[in-house]
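Mods, move this if it's the wrong board.
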Amino acid sequence: MGKNEIQLKNWRGYNAGTITIMNMELDFMPSLHAYLKNKWQISVGVAIDFTLSNLEYENPKSRHF
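Not the wrong board. Structure tokens:
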């Protein structure tokens, strides 16, 4: 059985055949409306570093690089 095949079994556990996937394309990009309508959760993480040890952004010794 190849990785593009799904083995089917009957209710007794015996082989009942296979499904072979020749080509599959997923095109699913949910909108914000879909998230809200289906009660999906959106997780967001935000971090702000206010320490002075980072130096200026243009400085090559800063930790921004």
